[in-house]
Every structure is written in structure tokens, then in C-alpha cells.
Amino acid sequence: MAMASIAKRKACFLTRNLSNSPSADAFKLSYSLTKFSRRFATLGSEENDVVVIGGGPGGYVAAIKAAQLGLKTTCIEKRGTLGGTCLNVGCIPSKALLHSSHMFHEAQHSFASHGVKFSSVEVDLPAMMAQKDKAVSTLTRGKNIIIATGSDVKSLPGIIIDEEKIVSSTGALALQQIPKKLVVIGAGYIGLEMGSVWARLGSEVTVVEFAPDIVPSMDGEVRKQFQRTLEKQKMKFMLKTKVVGVDTSGNGVKLTVEPASGGDQTTLEADVVLASAGRTPFTAGLGLDRIGVETDKGGRILVNERFATNVSSVYAIGDVIPGPMLAHKAEEDGVACVEFIAGKHGHVDYDKVPGVVYTHPEVASVGKTEAQVKALGVEYRVGKFPFLANSRAKAIDDAEGLLKIIAEKETDKILGVHIMAPNAGELIHEAVLALAYDATSEDISRVCHAHPTMSEALKEAAMATHDKPIHI
Ligand SMILES: Cc1cc2nc3c(=O)[nH]c(=O)nc-3n(C[C@H](O)[C@H](O)[C@H](O)COP(=O)(O)OP(=O)(O)OC[C@H]3O[C@@H](n4cnc5c(N)ncnc54)[C@H](O)[C@@H]3O)c2cc1C
Ligand SMILES: NC(=O)c1ccc[n+]([C@@H]2O[C@H](COP(=O)([O-])OP(=O)(O)OC[C@H]3O[C@@H](n4cnc5c(N)ncnc54)[C@H](O)[C@@H]3O)[C@@H](O)[C@H]2O)c1
Q: Which positions fall inside the FAD/NAD(P)-binding domain (predicted)?
């Protein structure tokens, strides 16, 4: 193992690929860190103010921020590269494949209507995979203790992931052939994003979901439209259904499923099964029980508002603690945690963390759903605007979706925004800012929005919330 110290002050990043031989130069340095001055040292030769375990979005951001705050910091990562799940086998490779498969789908189904014609379009899967790998490798080059060890795929009883016939998201990002039939277990973020990739490339995709709805955390009205849209894209859904048996003895996989509440069983055949029924915190090998760090029933490390565990000087951030399992939330945790350690004030409001499903169209949200507001007994108003009435969406012939705002009736304060649109993941940030500054729907409707843009839909929905929209 080798070690580099990178700092405005001093941050060391130790990376080691445990799956390979631990050779002396199994050291790699991550991207933006190279802009800091470098100094090489050996582990243990110096004392640190902060040691971060895990170099994912939570860990490496915490380490950079700690160094910026003048704390002598070491970040230890067991992989050969920094970036964690997100960069190596999560956000980045999945978005690369979503983009490539979307281009293929557009070339097949949309370009002609814009006057762009091809005689034939084919998938070159190895080239597509190489492009994804390039996206990942371009980004991965590049004693207070903070535990930032992330999460791992949740295991399902009787289902053994071999990453060939039964794959986790990691295997689904690296399939060597397009499966004819793909069964996805779990209609959450991973199931819908990876299901979309392979459906676009020609797989017959069936999603088996235990709950009555897809993405149970999504606003009900948006979710209904979203499901219809995915069905139009040929994804099939079996809701309120559970997998009770798996047989991998033949060429493919046979799955026995039955209604979630019990009843008649049916068999589904698949070439590949994607297990995407959630992720669990990863703390194996840390010896948390030996030092007495408290966890909840699901194994998540319990922390207070300063990200401190019950053990003095031990902190935890990211997927390994309760809260949304998202890369940007892990980054915010990391920054706030080291701000506290440095004697400053940090803050993350989990109610204002945006979530985005990167399908086409994308679905993005921030704040509360209508069902959550109702359950709180708060009186509210809803304003909606369909993208069919938005001139930019019509101009690009990509107008499926809606924008929905929920505001408190008495104060007009915005409580939640839910968007289904081609670029919802970008549009949502105006809404995030509005929530962060306690804006009202009238505030948004009085802000000038450029024309023609998709963002005008937010202004129109805001008008619809407290008054009337102009263009519908
Ligand atoms: C397929 C997929 C797609 C995703 N897409 C998105 C997305 O688009 N947007 C989004 O916001 N989120 C996405 N996520 C979720 C996102 O990846 C996680 O929320 C994020 O990576 C969590 O960051 P983290 O730093 O807490 O943990 P991780 O990124 O999991 O990093 C933890 C690191 O700790 C290391 N580690 C573990 N134990 C030890 C140890 N004992 N010693 C040293 N190192 C250790 C691990 O090797 C790992 O590198 C996706 C996840 C998956 C699986
Ligand atoms: N775009 C993104 O931000 C993005 C993308 C991928 C992953 N992620 C993160 O990764 C995490 C894991 O993703 P995920 O899709 O695995 O989990 P998820 O929690 O998003 O969805 C899991 C789904 O599986 C269902 N389920 C649970 N047990 C089941 C069973 N036995 N049979 C059938 N269905 C079952 C749940 O009801 C749920 O709908 C998520 O928390 C998400 O935050 C985020």
C-alpha cells in the first residue's frame, strides 16, 4: 500500500484494491484532488485530526472539506479507486448506460420525425460498455474517525447473486449480452433505471414489486403517469407480488411468484434476473460491536445532529446512517460532519434533499408528497402544469410529463415539488432553492422565466397553485 498526502493543509488518501494483490504501488489518486499540493508519507508516521474510513461521495468529500478546514486528514479506501459505489458501480456507470441506450432508442424511434434518417441502427454492446468504463475511469483517476463505508445490495431470502444469471446492479451494468428476458425484483430507483437501459436495448422487461406501487416514495399522481409512460416503453409490472422460489438449474432462471398477500403461484422465465430490492448499510469488518457503536435494526449507524455516534470521537455519514441513500446527501453529510469537528456549524435538511430517477422522462422531487402533507393534517393547495402545454417541450416533441406544486393553504409556503419531464433532474433545483428559502408559490410566479424553456412550467404551476396559470 502506498499513500499520498494531498492538501491545502493535509489530507491523505489511501486506496487499496483488496481484490487484487496488495502490491506496494496499488495506489491511485482521485481527480480534483490532484490540484492540491502532494506529499508522500507512510501510514502511522504522523498523527491525524480526522481519519475517514471509506472513499465514496461521503468519505472523500468529508476528507477534502476537513483538509480545507485545516484538519490533518487521512481517508482510507479498500477499493483501488476513490469514488465509492456512486462512481465505480453506481451513479456514473448507470447514467452512462442510460444515456447510450437513450441515444439508441431515439435513433430508432425519434430521429426520423425530426428529419434525420439512417438506413439502419445497431447496438454495439462492447463499444457501449467501453464508453461506460471510460466515463468511470476518467473520473476515478483523477482521531476523530468518520465511518463512510456506504452500502451493499440487500440480499433476498433464497436468491443468490452470482452476477451472471442473478445480478445486482453491478452485474446489470456489465452484461456481455442483451438478455432476451429480464426480470427485475423491485420497482425502485435501480430497477427502473437499469430496467429502462435493457428495455431500450431490446430486452423484454418484467418488474416484480412487493408494494402496491412502483417507487413507493414518489408522489402518487406523478407515479401513476410515470408507470403509464414506462408501460408504453414496454416495461411490464407485476405489483403486489413476491418472489417465492428461484430455479437456476436450466439455461435460464425460473422464478416462482405469488400475490404479496398469498394465493396462486405462477412461474416467470428469464435469462437474467436483477435483484434490486434495496441496499443495506455496509459495516462488515469494522468491529463496531467491539467499540460499542449503536446501530438500528437495519444495521444503520445511529448518529445525532452532529453526525456523532454514541462513541466519543466516532462519526458516521452517507449510506451507512439513516436517511436517503443518495450520493449528494452523503456529500452534504460529509461537509457538515467535518464542519462540526472543526468547531463550526454544519447543517443538512433531509426534507430538502432532491431525488431523481434518471429514466426518460426523468422524475424528480423535493419536499413532501401530497399523501405526506395530507397525513400531517396540513391544509394545502395543489398547482399543476402539463408539459403538453409547454412550448419548449412541444418544440422538441418531448412533452410527456407534468409539474406539481404543493403549498400550505394558509401561508402559500411551498411544501413539495414533483416533476416528470425529460430534464426533471435539472429543473428540480429551482424548486430546491425555493424550499431552502421558504418561498411561496406566488414568489415563484412573480420571477421572470426565459422563453421558451421547460422552467416556465414551474412558473405556470406556481401560478396555478395560488391563482390561475396563463397558458392553460
Ligand atoms: C446502480 C446505482 C446507481 C446509483 N445512482 C445514483 C444516482 O444517480 N444519484 C445518487 O445520488 N445516488 C445514486 N446511487 C446511490 C449512491 O451510489 C450512494 O448513495 C452513494 O455512493 C453513497 O455514498 P457513501 O460515500 O455513503 O458510500 P459508498 O459510495 O458506498 O462508498 C463507501 C466506500 O467505502 C469503502 N469501504 C467500505 N468498507 C471499508 C473498510 N472497512 N475500509 C476501507 N474502505 C471501506 C467501499 O469500498 C466504498 O468505496 C446509486 C447506487 C447504485 C447502486
Ligand atoms: N437515481 C438515483 O438517485 C439512484 C439510482 C439508483 C440507486 N439509488 C439509490 O440506491 C438505493 C437502492 O436502490 P434500489 O432500487 O435497490 O432500492 P429502492 O429502495 O429504491 O427500491 C426497492 C424496491 O424493491 C421493493 N421490494 C423490497 N423487497 C421486495 C421483494 N422481496 N420483492 C419485490 N420487491 C421488493 C420495494 O418495495 C421498493 O420499491 C436507493 O435507496 C436509491 O436511493 C439512487
A: 49-334
Half-sphere exposure (CA, 13 Å, Cβ side) for 424? 30
Q: Which residues form the pocket of ligand 2, taking CB atoms under 6 Å from any ligand atom?
A: 156, 185-191, 193, 208-211, 216, 242-243, 276-279, 324-326, 356-358
Grid cell of 154 as nine digits: 440487500
- Residue 203 in contact with residue 197, Cβ under 8 Å? no
Judging by beta carbons within 10 Å of its beta carbon (0-12, 13-18, 19+), is residue 127 exposed, middle or buried?
exposed
Q: What amino acid occupies position 307? A: F
Residue 317 CA to residue 281 CA, distance in Å, equals 11
Positions of E strands within 59-194: 73-77, 144-147, 151-153, 166-167, 181-185
Listed residue (11, 54, 12) closest to 3, CA to CA: 12
Q: Give me the interface pTM, i.e. the ipTM.
A: 0.98
Cα-to-centroid distance, 86 and ligand 1 (Å)? 5
Q: Cell numbers of 401, please?
A: 410529463
C-alpha cell at 431: 424548486
For residues 459 and 470, is the Cβ–Cβ distance under 8 A?
Answer: no
Neighbours of 287 (CB within 10 A): 9
Please list the alpha-helical segments (H only) found in 69-124: 84-89, 91-109
Cis peptide before 452 (omega within 30 of 0): yes
Structure pTM? 0.91
* Per-residue pLDDT tens over the stretch 295-319: 999 999 999 999 999 999 999 999 9
Q: Which of 279, 333, 426 to mutate to test the pocket of ligand 2 (most atoms within 8 A of CB)?
A: 279
- Alpha helix ranges (H) inside 141-188: 169-172
CB 64 within 8 A of CB 31: no
Amino acid (1-letter code) at residue 14:
L
Name the amino acid, one letter, at 9. R
Which residues 6+ apart lie within 8 Å of 361 measured at CB? 229, 398, 400, 401, 420, 421, 422, 424
- 62: exposed, middle or buried (Cβ count in 10 Å: 0-12, 13-18, 19+): buried
Residue type, 100: S
What is the secondary structure of 381-404 as a DSSP string? Answer: EEEEEEGGG-HHHHHTT----EEE
- Point out which residues pair with 383 in neighbouring strands: 405
Instruction: State the angle between helix axes of 189-200 and 220-232 in degrees (0 to 180), rounded to the nearest 10.
Output: 20
For residue 445, count other CB atoms closer than 10 A to its CB: 22
What tens digit of pLDDT does each residue of 200-223 get?
Answer: 999 999 999 999 999 999 999 999
Distance between Cα 149 and ligand 1 center (Å): 8
- Count of CB atoms situated within 10 Å of the CB of 313: 13
Q: Answer yes or no: are the C-beta atoms of 150 and 282 closer than 8 Å.
A: yes
309, 302 contact by CB (below 8 A): yes
Angle at 9 between CA 8 and CA 12, to 5 degrees: 95
